[in-house]
TrEMBL record:
Residues 8-346 form the FAD-binding domain. Keywords: Oxidoreductase. This is 4-hydroxybenzoate 3-monooxygenase. It holds the Pfam family FAD_binding_3.
Length: 394
C-alpha cells in the first residue's frame, strides 16, 4: 500500500496527558503537531490513574484554556493525614507553604485535553500500530505508523517528542551508547481498588501500619479510590471484596480510622519503580513524561512531572523553532532534570518512609515511626513534605 507522506513542525509519539498538553500548548503558540497513540481513546479513558494535581498543574490547565472542568469538578485538598503510631496527624499545606492541591483524576485531564484538541482541529490519531521513529540525528526526523484502518503513514518533522510512557518505543530509540538508565525496584506494589461507597475521610490518609501501607483517596461522593501495599506477584483473583475490606480495615484501624465499605468495581496491582533515562534528548528526539522517568505513586508526582516537562518543553521548542535558538532543547533537558531528580527523591522518600519491607525488623518499623513523628511535629520537616506535595515553583 502507498505510504501517505505529510509533514509538521513537531511529531509527538504518545497521546496521553503529556503528548496532548504539549500539542495544545504548541497550537496556542502557532506551532503545528501530529500526535499518535497505539491505544484507543476509550482505552486511555478507562485506565485508572492517580488523581492529585499540584497547584502549578492546575494553573497550567486554567491559563491555557482547558481548566473549566477542573475548576468546577476538582476538589481542593488543603492537607493530608499522615496516620501512624495509633493516630492521624494532619499536614496543613496552606499554613506551611501557602498552597494546596486539587483532587482531579488523570483520566479527566486526558478527556479535557482530547476534547480541546478535537475542538481546535488538532491532528491526533488514536489506535495506530507499527510505530517507529527514524533519522533522529538529522534535521528531518520521521515518525512512521499504520493508522486505525491499516494505512501506512510517514510524518516528517523538525523535532520528534517521545511522550509514549515507560513502555513506549522512544526511550529505546536512543542508542545504548548515548543513554544511561538509572533504575530502582521496590519489593512491593499497590493493590488499587475503586469502590462504590461514600467517602471515608475528607482528606487523603497516608497510613503506615505493621501490616503495611494503605492510602485512602477519593473520587466522587459515591465512588472512592483506595490502595494497599501488596506483593508485586499478588493475583487480584485471590482477593474477594470481603478479604480486601478486612485487610484495609485492619491497616487503618491501627490508627483509629474506620472505612465505609461498598461493592468493589475495579481491582488492579500497580508496579512500583523509580527510573530516569539521561539524557532526555538525542539529536532531534526529545523525551518527556514517563518516557523519560517514572516515579512510584506515593508522592502523586507522575502526572505533575509530565505536565511540568511539557510546559518547559513548549517554551523551549518555541525558541528553537521560531528563533533558531540552537541550545534551546538542551536547556529543556537541564530545566526538566532538576525537577525530575527532586521528584525522584521526594517519591522515594515518601515511599520508603511509609511502606513496610517484607523482611522489616522491629528496628526498621520503629525507625519509620520516629521519622514520621519528626515529619508530623517538626515545622521544618512538615514544610518539606508540603513543598514537595504541592509542587516546587519552576
Ligand atoms: C489517587 O487518588 O489515585 C492517588 C492519590 C495520591 C497518591 C496516589 C494516588 O499519592
Amino acid at each position: 500500500m502507498n505510504v501517505t507522506r505529510t509533514s509538521t513542525d513537531v511529531a509527538i509519539v504518545g497521546g496521553g496527558p503529556a503528548g496532548l498538553m504539549l500539542a495544545h500548548l504548541l497550537h496556542r503558540a502557532g506551532i503545528g503537531s501530529v500526535v499518535i497513540d497505539i491505544r484507543t481513546r476509550r482505552e486511555i479513558e478507562t485506565t485508572h490513574r492517580a488523581g492529585i494535581l499540584e497547584q502549578d498543574s492546575v494553573r497550567l490547565l486554567t491559563e491555557s484554556g482547558v481548566g473549566d472542568r477542573v475548576l468546577r469538578d476538582g476538589r481542593r485538598h488543603a492537607g493530608i493525614d499522615l496516620a501512624f503510631g495509633g493516630a492521624g496527624h494532619r499536614i496543613d499545606f496552606p499554613s506551611l507553604v501557602g498552597a494546596s492541591v486539587q483532587l482531579y483524576p488523570q483520566t479527566d485531564v486526558f478527556t479535557d485535553l482530547a476534547d480541546a484538541r478535537a475542538r481546535d482541529g488538532g491532528d491526533v490519531r488514536f489506535g495506530v500500530g507499527d510505530v517507529s521513529v527514524a533519522d533522529i540525528v538529522t534535521d528531518r526526523p520521521l515518525m512512521r505508523f499504520t493508522d486505525a484502518d491499516g494505512r501506512p503513514h510517514e510524518v516528517g518533522a523538525r523535532v520528534l517528542v517521545g511522550c509514549d510512557g515507560s513502555r513506549g518505543i522512544c526511550r529505546s530509540a536512543v542508542p545504548e551508547a548515548e543513554r544511561r538508565q538509572y533504575f530502582r525496584a521496590y519489593p512491593y506494589a499497590w493493590f488499587g481498588i475503586l469502590c462504590q461507597a461514600p467517602p471515608s475521610s475528607e482528606e487523603l490518609i497516608y497510613n503506615h501500619s505493621d501490616r503495611g501501607f494503605a492510602l485512602i483517596s477519593r473520587r466522587t461522593e459515591s465512588v472512592q479510590r483506595m490502595y494497599f501495599q501488596c506483593d508485586p506477584a499478588e493475583n487480584v483473583t485471590d482477593w474477594s471484596d470481603a478479604r480486601i475490606w478486612e485487610e484495609l480495615q485492619q491497616r487503618v484501624r491501627a490508627n483509629g480510622y474506620t472505612l465505609k465499605e461498598g461493592p468493589i468495581m475495579s481491582k488492579t496491582v500497580l508496579p512500583f519503580r523509580s527510573f530516569v533515562q539521561e539524557t532526555m534528548r538525542h539529536g532531534a528526539l526529545v523525551l518527556a513524561g514517563d518516557a523519560a522517568h517514572t516515579v512510584p505513586p506515593t508522592g502523586a508526582k507522575g502526572l505533575n512531572l509530565a505536565l511540568a516537562d511539557v510546559r518547559v518543553l513548549a517554551e523551549q521548542l518555541e525558541l528553537h523553532l521560531r528563533h533558531g535558538d540552537a541550545d534551546a532543547l538542551e536547556r529543556y533537558v537541564e530545566r526538566a532534570l532538576q525537577r525530575v531528580w527532586k521528584a525522584q527523591h521526594f517519591s522515594y522518600w515518601m515511599t520508603t518512609m511509609l511502606h513496610r519491607l517484607p523482611d522489616a525488623s522491629g528496628f526498621d518499623v520503629r525507625r519509620q515511626v520516629g521519622e514520621l513523628t519528626s515529619v508530623a511535629t517538626s515545622r521544618a520537616a512538615s514544610t518539606y513534605l508540603a513543598e514537595g506535595y504541592t509542587g516546587w515553583p519552576s
